[in-house]
Amino acid sequence: MKNLKIVMTAFVVGLGLLSFTTKDDHKTTDKNMNVSSVKGYEVGDEATDFRLKNIDGKMVSLSDFKSAKGFIVIFTCNHCPYAKKYEDRIIELDKKYKAQGYPVIAINPNDPNVQPEDGYQQMIERAKQKGFTFPYLVDEGQKIYPQYGATKTPHVFVLKKENGKNIVKYIGAIDNNYDNPDDVSEYYVQDAVNALIKGETVKTSKTVAIGCTIKVKK
Questions:
Q1: Tell me, what DSSP letter sits at residue 135?
Q2: Which helix (H) or strand (E) segment is 105 a member of?
Q3: Alpha carbon of 50 to those of 38, 114, 213: distances in Å?
Q4: Which of 134, 160, 161, 172 would be a feasible disulfide site paired with 207, CB 3.0-4.6 Å?
């Protein structure tokens, strides 16, 4: 019996050490992956303005859009398969809601040294190829995406102007089927913007963004 107790005690201690090692490894991984440690905004927070370079070479800020009632801010890029799948839907969102006061503002957060396909010249070419109807800004120095808390491309933040402030009303995915727009059953961004236009509360204010991880400078 005494030997059995010794064996059981050793087993429990071993499990404890294994658990500790596993947790510590997980923490180390998160620390090394800068994106995973990003906190960013929650629904209801005020989003600060930014000033980023557009594909036409001009600097763009949210404050430039005087008549806007809010914004559909989308962190996206050139190379990501998920982002590519959503490009046409992002264009449609801009066409549908820009006239109603909610223009799309696209931001590329990726470091081009890590992912060359997301370089500035490549952004210009991609926008021309797809016929982007919205600003496509580059987050030089990767200073804006951490403020927002973006972790994926695409990652959406719907903002509403309230008393001169841009208040976050929705965070997450565009819809619930990145692969096929014909199979979408939940239109998260559309539903959020439609509710804001009607003066209603956004029912689904946060979802999990599905896409590629943001490519952080090494």
A1: -
A2: strand 104-108
A3: 18, 23, 22
A4: 172
Distance CA(181)–CA(191), nearest Å, equals: 15
State the sign of the Cα–Cα–Cα–Cα dihedral 186, 190, 205, 39: positive
- Tens of pLDDT, residue by residue over 164-217, are 999 999 999 999 999 999 999 999 999 999 999 999 999 999 999 999 999 999
CB-CB contact of 21 with 149 (8 Å)? no
Taking the C-alpha atoms of residue 15 and residue 13, their distance in angstroms, rounded to an integer, is 5
Enclosing H/E stretch for 25: helix 2-32
Burial label, 99 (beta-carbon count in 10 A; 0-12, 13-18, 19+): exposed
Specify the pTM: 0.83
Angle, helices 120-130/81-97, rounded to nearest 10 degrees: 60
Residue pair 161/147 in contact by the 8 Å Cβ criterion: no
Tell me the C-alpha distance between 42 and 44, whole Å: 6
Under a CB-based contact definition with an 8 Å cutoff, are residues 115 and 81 in contact? no
Alpha carbon distance 176, 145 (integer Å): 23
Q: Are 88 and 176 in contact (CB under 8 A)?
A: no
Angle between helices 81-97 and 188-197 (to 10 degrees): 20
Cα end-to-end distance, the chain, whole Å = 56
